[in-house]
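Hi F.,

I've been meaning to write this up properly since the lab meeting, where we talked about keeping a consistent format for the predictions we share between groups. The idea is simple: the sequence comes first, exactly as it goes in, then the structure tokens exactly as they come out, then a line or two of notes. No screenshots and no reformatting. I'm using this chain as the first example so we have something concrete to point to.
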Amino acid sequence: MEKKTIVLTRKIRLRINTTDAEFKKECLKRMYGWQTACFRAANFIFSHHYLQDQIKELFYITDNVKVKLADITTDADGILTTSKENTTYQLLSRYFKGDIPMNILSPLNHTLVSLYNQERKAYWNGEKSLRNYKRNIPIPFNSQVLKLSASEGKNFKFTLFKIPFETFLGQDKSDRRSVLLKVMGGSMKIGTSQLQLEKNKTFLILSVHFDKEQHELDISVIAEASLSLEYPIAVKIGSANFLIGNKEEFLHRRIALQAARRRLQQGAAFNKSGHGRKRKLKPVINYDNHEKKYVHYKLHVYSKKLIDICIKHQAATLLLVNQEQKEEIAKEDSFLLRNWSYYGLKEKITYKANKAGITVISE
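Output, unedited:
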């Protein structure tokens, strides 16, 4: 059954809303403690579910031992005292209850068990190694514990597990503020979100759910799109043809940015030192994300224009022509692989098409 909602994720900088240095220090210590507990809990979850599945592979155990991963109260042959997902929840409750809120452990367990079940076949076939989580794992929490309120200016306040937070949106060139306003207005609903602690900074990984856009689309109308370096997107709908972007705008500008960065690297040895390596490489570091930002922006512009064309012509299906073949060719050509962002463009097209109710087929 087709889902009627879209999940949107935004990363928002946070700061603890207090002037008390001791209280702020205590809050940070508490959050880092939760992060360590989540790191341990995540590895427990995957290890225990993998062990449960491998019990059935222990062929050297006598046949008199019944092995069936089911709740014994619902299946006579079951060896579990509860449901499979609840086994690790009880384990985490035993180890961490009192040290970390259960509103963190519950979504962590549910998310990772679902992820394990998606990948279990690859584990059995030896195609994938078991996941190993690191100490910088995000801290998940249920949507019920997050209540936003507007503050003076453009930021928002909320309390999470008795810790007061305030958003720090800065210039906010993206749509984060509008997303938060829609959440407060009720047109978007918060899903399971996360706190991310990195480099002494705190971020909210906000997950929101909203309904798909409603457009008048005709299932008999098919848009054919071709992705390439010459023209990022060439579209054909019936007798109408459209070209989105061009080689000079995208590829030449991208290569120019790469060349500029190389010149800065070559000249770094002759820069003033002052503070050693950091001072010498300052121009290179400042230039690091120029290409990435440029490509990211252009791919958003191209994909949006493509979907707007499909909506205007009521195309219910978008066909990416010969895309699989082009991707295989690109893997063998280092220049194409480096400079043709086929995966990023395809990903953005798929997301925007899904949001508009358009079916994407890659051939």
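Notes:
The chain has a mean pLDDT of 84.
The longest helix spans residues 21-54.

If this format works for you, I'll send the rest the same way.

G.
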